[in-house]
DNA sequence: TTTGCCGGGCC
DNA sequence: GGCCCGGCAAA
């Protein structure tokens, strides 16, 4: 783990992240940042965003969640030494309750200091990011201080165990004027503030309000998994393909990461402004075994998470629901498939469907993929490339990439096409976890271990 | 140009 | 209550 391998984004990340963390999770922040950085070093070699630390949440994700974009928080990783599979998280306290957890039952990943409910729904294939307690992760707002990204999180939510006075004065962070990359003070011209007159003819009140907001330091949004991934990979792509246009690069990376074949039942909006109605349904279906079943809907009253759990149990909602998006509980196998939301929200107990199933096919498809794709993996910067396994419906992916907008893509620049391959990513475990939400993550881990290559993190180690 | 995430606001 | 849609993040 050479230092230089440390993805730049990680550095920046800790930076940015720390801001957010400090603000939102004052107690986790710095420490976490350093930890993740350290861990990052370890996994840095892999371009896969898998180990990217989610800058947004102080959540610990399981290392084998390796979707290329899976942003992981590896704080806990620090506890496991290379060579040894993570036994269990030593210090694990429920972030929410603050109650120390007893040894975890096998079915619950110790790496998820999340509320049980959360665990149950995380894993939506799309949800590379582990949803946290359903709370916004932006800077926490204390008192009347308002950030551009105010959060509903109340101190007690995650910090209840700490006395109020112990909470770091995060707000001072930028109030003090300490420069931080993540915080950009809008060059709000004083003109505006001075020229009240000017805004006078407008709507004064509203206007002034906006002005005020403008003046506030703008806290940049944390980079999401994809962004981090891009940041990291862009250079590689540029180097290998001599591409330099962001658009082109992004496109490539987007493909690599996207359509992993795995459910990916989403991609609704993008891809050329899709129409809400025309998309996804079928694609999801065929990817998800569960889908083949009648939409659990059952009864016609497919209660959505919100209605099901209520606002107070938002942590139990499926990710989309939290985002106010289409509920996937009944399609992704996320909830129903995995476990019909029981009234009490005991999602986590629900047994996963069949991670292995998904994973196996994937493996098989790999060889095929390679054949189909003349382009070699050799170029891939990732040592784990050989472990890469394409998703079952890889054909689709290939087709797409191969046939991708003619000329539109800078493919030409990349003769080897290596870039079109998903990053080392999506190792089996990842696939499994992707397909399999939550609880299973741990399971899949172990079960998969025998069948397939180990989780990325482990692989890396062994390689070393 | 890419994806993920957020939240306003429509239905 | 469900979720569409625009906007933002990096380069
Ligand atoms: Zn839902």
Q: Can you describe this structure?
A:
Strands 1-2 form a two-stranded antiparallel sheet. The N terminus and C terminus are likely disordered. Helix content is 37%, strand content 1%. The protein is globular, with a radius of gyration of 22 Å. By secondary structure, it is mostly helical. The longest helix is centred in the last third of the chain and has 18 residues. The chain binds zinc ion. The structure holds a DNA duplex (11 and 11 nucleotides). One of its GO terms (molecular function) is RNA polymerase II cis-regulatory region sequence-specific DNA binding.
Roughly what is the average pLDDT, rounded to an integer? 45
The biggest beta sheet reads: 2 strands, antiparallel
- Rg on CA atoms, Å: 22 Å
Distance between the termini: 9 Å
Q: Which strand order spans the largest sheet, edge to edge or round the barrel?
A: 1-2
Which structural class should the secondary elements be placed in?
A: mainly alpha
Could you say which overall geometry the principal axes of the C-alpha atoms support? Answer: globular
DSSP helical segment count: 19
Total strand count, please? 2
Low-confidence stretches: 1-68, 70-176, 188-203, 260-264, 271-301, 333-413, 415-419, 421-464
Order of helices and strands, N to C? Answer: HHHHHEHHHEHHHHHHHHHHH
Helix content: 25-40%
Q: What compounds sit in this structure?
A: zinc ion
Strand content: under 5%
User: Assembly type of the shown chains?
Assistant: single chain
